[in-house]
Task: structure prediction
Amino acid sequence: MVRIILNLLWLILGGGIVLALGYAVAALICFVLIITIPFGVASLRLAGYALWPFGRTLVQKPGAGVASCAANVLWVLLAGWWLALSHIVAGVTLCLTVIGIPFGVANFKLVPAALWPLGQHVVDAP
Result:
């Protein structure tokens, strides 16, 4: 029940909708460019995670190898840096208030995912 309340507050106060829209815009750009469709799929995965982060976590896929690592470098150059920057700015801003600290921490938790999305998948937290 606490996770549901935190996720609903996240959508309203934590900027979850705005951050998810940022990932959706990145996904649309990647889908239009055709070659970057795998980046678009990863961006949509992160958009869903940005909408509902509490009670879920990111884990490494066991089969992710050198190709996903090389693609992640390209992702950082194209879209990852500004998505990570948006999480950092939102996290710092939210941590200025006591009520916003859990949401700021959730934003900081999303920074590595924004920088390195390929080779990870979202699972329910234990």
Observations:
- The mean pLDDT is 86.
